[in-house]
Design brief:
Blueprint lengths: L14 H13 L4 E3 H7 L6 H7 L6 E3 L11 E6 L7 H12 L3 H10 L14 E2 L2 E5 L2 E9 L5 E9 H5 L8 H10 L2 H13 L6 H10 L3 H11 L1
Antiparallel strand pairs: 1-3, 2-3, 4-5, 6-7
Helix pairs in contact: 1-3
The structure holds zinc ion (ZN).
The site of zinc ion has 9 residues, from strand 7 and helix 6.
Amino acid sequence: MPDPRWDDPSLKAGTMVRAALWLVQEVGEGNTFTKEQLRLAFPGIAQADRRVRDLRDFGWVLDTNASDVTLSAEEQRFSKRGVDVWNADVRRAVKRDDGAISNKQRDAVFAAGGYQCAFCGIAGGEPYPDRPAETAVLLVSRRSIETARGGVEQLLVTECKRCRSGAATRTHSVSEVRAMLEDLDAEDLRRIKRWAVQGIRGTTPLDRAWTGFRALPASEQSGLLDQLG
Ligand SMILES: [Zn+2]
């Protein structure tokens, strides 16, 4: 069966699928396109560039001037075609494969993340500071992280139920955040900058020490504290 035409009015498909077909049929693999061309192809669709980016989850390679300095800020290169997203079966197969996280992977991710949420830093079983009756449950999720080079990588991260549901998201004013950042010592500020680049929170020596300490039986905990004075 031939591929559908990107501009076929009878094609029942979302913007990501249409954009994939547009790239293949109008731009051509290896060629560049501009934001303006994308806007003209998909008039009135505000998030067309985002939908193009979503194609990266399906193995499509799109370069921007973050990954290729010969491109202008307005340009992208359609470098490599990925899976045929207009085929719903193929699309589902990729998604399913993507969604399955094995127990072994999960254990490795928990261990690498120090058994704490990568976003708010809470440890498993620990009560939330602002809601002491609620204790954290940790999960492993697949997150698309935008890297410093402008690409998107799929990472497995530990997060708590609350961060996953977005319930922990509270908007601070810029001046509030600025004041909080200014209160940090130089080392913590460097950490924040590093996390900002990585797109996720990393663990600190303090976190790792605390997580290790919490995992000890109560009798060992008090003994250890006594020894340390
Ligand atoms: Zn969290």
